[in-house]
Amino acid sequence: MSAQKSINFAAVRTWLHDEAWPFWGEVGVDRSQGGFVEHLTLAGENGNAPFKRVRAQARQIYCFSHAALAGWSDGAAIADHGWDFLTRHGRREDGAWVRRLAPNGEVLDAACDAYDMAFVLFAHAWRHKVTKDPGVEASALETLDALERVLGHSNGLGWLAEEGDAGPRQQNPHMHLIEAAIELADTTGHPRFQAFGRRIAALFAERILERDTGVLREFFAPDWSPLATPEGRIVEPGHQLEWAWILYRAAPILELDMSREASLLYAHAERHGVAPVSGLTYDQIDLTGRIISGDHRSWPQTEALKANLAMLDGHGLDTRERIAVCVDNLLDLYLKPAPTGAWIDHIDGRLQPRVDKIPSTTLYHLQLAFTELLRLQPVIEAMPAA
Questions:
Q1: 3-state SS, residue 256
Q2: pLDDT, tens digit, for every residue of 100-112?
Q3: How do beta strands 284-285 and 291-293 pair?
Q4: Spatial distance between the Cα atoms of 302 and 364, rounded to a whole number of angstroms
Q5: What distance in Å separates the CA atoms of residue 329 and residue 327, rounded to the nearest whole number?
Q6: How buried is 360 (Cβ within 10 angstroms: 0-12 exposed, 13-18 middle, 19+ buried)?
Q7: CA-to-CA distance for 308 and 336, rounded, in angstroms?
Q8: pLDDT (tens digit, 9 = 90+) per residue, 27-40?
Q9: Architecture of domain 9-377
Q10: Using CA atoms, how far apart are residues 233 and 210, in angstroms rounded to an integer?
Q11: Angle at 55 between CA 16 and CA 50, to 5 degrees
C-alpha cells in the first residue's frame, strides 16, 4: 500500500505571504493613476491595459484586505489605495456601479453588471472586516438597493446578468452574489444581508441545481427552466465545486443546511469533471459528462481544492489525497513556471501554457483557496494516518 501523499503547506504559505502579496503589492498597484493594474505581461511587468475592470479593482481590494487581516503589514494601506480609486470613479449617481474604467478612472462602460456588482459587494464586506466603518455597511446597503432596482428580474427570480439583458439567465453572477451576502452578513450582522443570501440559496436549491443528478447548468430560460440549446448543456465543474464550498461556508452564517446540495455538486464534479491521470479539473463538460473543453484554467483547480477542504471539514470525508494533488498541481503547473509571485492562468490538455498575459483577478481564487488550506492545516495535521 502506497504512503499517503503529503500536503505541502510550507510552500503554499511561502508563496502567499513572502512572494505573492509583496509582488502584487508592488507591481500590481498603479501608483500614478490609482487603483490596480488589470494584467501583467508574461515577464511580470505592467501590461498597460487600456482599461480597468471594476471587478478586478474589487477583487484586489478583497485580496489586500484579507492580507491585512492575515498580518501582512502593507495590506491595509494598499486596500485603502484601491478603495479610494474604486469609490471615487466607479459609482453611478443611481447607486449602481459601472463596469469598466480607463486607467485614470474615466468611465469607459457605465453599464451595471451583476457579476461586477457581486464583487463590489464582496469588496465592501472585506473592507468592513478591516475597518468596521459603518459607512461601508451603509454603502453596501445602497448597492443592494441599486441591484434590486436596476437588475431585478420582472418575475422576481434573481437578477439580470446586465442592464437591459434579454439573453439566457446565468447562474454565475448569483453564485458570487451569495458569496458576497455571506461575508457581509458575517461582518456586519445586518439581517438584510442574511435574508439576501437565503433568497439566493432558495433560488439555487429550487430552480438552478438539478437535484436528481447534481448537475449545475450555466445558462437557463427566464424562469430557470433548462434551455434546449447547446448553450443550455454546458456544465463547468469548477463552478460546481465553487458552489459546494460556498454552501459549506453559508451554513453557520445564513443559518441553513445545504449539505445535501453541496455533496451532490461535489460528487458529480469529481466523478465527471476531473482528468484521471493529472487530477486536474476540466474547464467544461456537458450534461452527460462528455468533455467540451479539456483545457484547465487555474481557477477550477483552486475551487477543487476549496471543495475538497469543505468535504473534509464539513462532511467528514477524508479528502487528504485529493487536497495534496490539487496543491501540487497548482504549485507545479501554474505557479512555478511563472515569475515569482505570479501564475500561468491557463494550460491545455497537454499541460502546456495557453496564455499571453497574467490577469490580476486570479489572485482572488488562489488566495481564497490557500488561506482556507492554511486555516485548516491544524485540523488536517491532527488527523490519524490513513
A1: coil
A2: 999 999 999 999 9
A3: antiparallel
A4: 10
A5: 5
A6: buried
A7: 23
A8: 999 999 999 999 99
A9: Alpha/alpha barrel (1.50)
A10: 12
A11: 100
